[in-house]
């Protein structure tokens, strides 16, 4: 920040310490950039930075007016950036969606007479939204930022940045629970201006901030990684009776659409995603991000005997070359064939059961740049990860089904062979019809100390 030829200063506030810079050379207005963390992070910290474009709102930001949700959005944006440890908030001098404070107050009077926020602006001779995001794009470029995750409910901001050369890889919702005084205003923005007042993955706005704490934890794990091992998230779905499938080797659609979108958002928050060969043989998954916005994680398959099928979808992954972790027992001819089809085969040391040693594999993945890893299953992999205490975070989706089928963990290899692992301070979040339980293992049970 101090490399820029603009006024800058350290700014400690309630949620953390930011750097503040004023940009006034683009359109004559004094726009402010509040930044936290290293904006020049190298490739190892390459997850797109969290950015908020916040248009000035004197009534909401300063006076705390409840006619809008601007002040609460400003406070929540700063909190989330502070939780992530790295991000930018641009405070843009575009009061009243670009019409200025005097006209905004006149529009308020028209709203009190029965017009909505769109018609009030039009009655005064203005556009419903007169803001221009070209200045925001130029400030981001001056900061050296070309790719962002944008904290917004407004698709016009996404489009505005993209039109000016900023790549927006994800829209991160910023939902504030409505109040009686602004419910109609927010409804108008949703219906007439296309604002997406949805909480993440179909989640109830009342608990959306709680869900964002989970993703802030994943952000910190990525920005502050362990030098030796990835931060491991154990994430899987099961029914009320603990099943992952109805019958052996046949997939079962457990999660509702909202929790599937949540799972895909989880995938996008990780550098890598790991499953066992049993899941490949049963489900033939793609392991891509489809029901959310964000990059595909690196797919990794644990396959101790190299049974990976030559027609698996993962060999045709749109963006990644699948990594197959196997042992010295693998047939060299099959290794060469899979590599010819586009896979990368990793030879990993074996454990006491002559299988892929997961601890050794995780260390190898960290050396390859995987800072945080999502483990989705199947049963044997889940069992090994839990029994060996190889995870830092549990994210469990429970669906309101009872199928009397195949348990999520491998039979006769569960926690009864080991001391119980307890989740410290678990969080419970309803997503659609399902329930997500997440939390970190108790410290004495943890493989490594989780990022906090």
UniProtKB/TrEMBL annotation:
Residues 230-436 form the Bacterial bifunctional deaminase-reductase C-terminal domain. SUPFAM superfamilies: Dihydrofolate reductase-like (SSF53597), RibA-like (SSF142695). It catalyses: GTP + 4 H2O = 2,5-diamino-6-hydroxy-4-(5-phosphoribosylamino)-pyrimidine + formate + 2 phosphate + 3 H(+). GTP binds at residues 52-56, 73, 95-97, 117, 152, 157. Zn(2+) binds at residues 57, 68, 70. The active site is at 129 (proton acceptor), 131 (nucleophile). It is an enzyme of class 3 (hydrolase). One of its GO terms (molecular function) is GTP cyclohydrolase II activity. The keyword Nucleotide-binding applies. Residues 9-173 form the GTP cyclohydrolase II domain. Its EC number is 3.5.4.25. It comes from the Bacteria. CDD domains: GTP_cyclohydro2. It holds the Pfam family RibD_C. Binds 1 zinc ion per subunit. Its cofactor is Zn(2+). InterPro entries: DHFR-like_dom_sf (IPR024072), GTP_cyclohydro_II (IPR032677), RibA (IPR000926), RibA-like_sf (IPR036144), RibD_C (IPR011549), RibDG_C (IPR002734). Keywords: GTP-binding, Hydrolase, Metal-binding, Nucleotide-binding, Riboflavin biosynthesis, Zinc. Pathway: Cofactor biosynthesis; riboflavin biosynthesis; 5-amino-6-(D-ribitylamino)uracil from GTP: step 1/4. Belongs to the GTP cyclohydrolase II family. PANTHER family: 3,4-DIHYDROXY-2-BUTANONE 4-PHOSPHATE SYNTHASE, GTP CYCLOHYDROLASE II-RELATED. Catalyzes the conversion of GTP to 2,5-diamino-6-ribosylamino-4(3H)-pyrimidinone 5'-phosphate (DARP), formate and pyrophosphate. This is GTP cyclohydrolase-2. It comes from Lysobacter brunescens. The gene is ribA.
């Amino acid at each position: 920040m101090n490399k820029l030829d603009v006024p800058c200063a350290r700014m400690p506030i309630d949620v953390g310490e930011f750097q503040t810079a004023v940009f006034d050379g683009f359109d004559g207005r004094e726009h402010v950039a509040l930044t936290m963390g290293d904006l020049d992070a190298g490739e190892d910290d390459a997850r797109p930075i969290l950015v908020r474009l916040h248009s000035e709102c004197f009534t909401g930001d300063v006076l705390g007016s409840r006619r809008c949700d601007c002040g609460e959005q400003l406070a929540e944006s700063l909190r989330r950036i502070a939780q992530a440890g790295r991000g930018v908030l641009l405070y843009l001098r575009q009061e009243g969606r670009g019409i200025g404070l005097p006209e905004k107050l006149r529009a308020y009077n028209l709203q009190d007479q029965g017009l909505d926020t769109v018609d009030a602006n039009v009655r005064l001779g203005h556009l419903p939204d007169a803001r221009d995001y070209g200045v925001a794009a130029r400030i981001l470029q001056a900061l050296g930022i070309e790719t962002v995750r944008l904290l917004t409910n407004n698709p016009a901001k996404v489009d505005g940045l993209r039109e000016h050369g900023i790549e927006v890889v994800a829209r991160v919702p910023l939902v504030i629970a409505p109040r009686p005084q602004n419910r109609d205003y927010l409804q108008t923005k949703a219906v007439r201006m296309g604002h997406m007042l949805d909480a993440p993955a179909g989640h109830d706005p009342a608990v959306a901030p709680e869900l964002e704490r989970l993703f802030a934890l994943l952000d910190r794990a990525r920005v502050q990684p362990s030098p030796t091992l990835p931060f491991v998230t154990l994430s899987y779905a099961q029914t009320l009776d603990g099943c992952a499938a109805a019958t052996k080797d046949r997939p079962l659609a457990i999660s509702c659409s909202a929790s599937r979108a949540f799972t895909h958002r989880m995938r996008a928050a990780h550098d890598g995603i790991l499953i066992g060969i049993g899941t490949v043989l049963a489900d033939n998954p793609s392991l891509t991000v489809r029901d959310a916005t964000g990059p595909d994680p690196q797919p990794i398959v644990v396959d101790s005997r190299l049974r990976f099928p030559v027609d698996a979808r993962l060999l045709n992954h749109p963006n990644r070359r699948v990594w197959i972790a196997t042992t010295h027992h693998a047939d060299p001819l099959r290794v060469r064939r899979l590599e010819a089809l586009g896979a990368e085969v990793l030879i990993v040391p074996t454990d006491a059961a002559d299988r892929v040693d997961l601890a050794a594999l995780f260390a190898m993945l960290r050396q390859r740049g995987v800072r945080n890893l999502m483990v989705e299953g199947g049963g044997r992999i889940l069992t090994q990860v839990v029994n060996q205490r190889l995870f830092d975070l549990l994210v469990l989706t429970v669906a309101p089904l009872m199928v009397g089928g195949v348990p999520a963990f491998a039979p006769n290899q569960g926690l009864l062979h080991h001391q119980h692992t307890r989740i410290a301070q678990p969080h419970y979040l309803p997503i659609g019809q399902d329930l997500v339980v997440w939390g970190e293992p108790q410290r004495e049970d943890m493989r490594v100390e989780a990022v906090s």
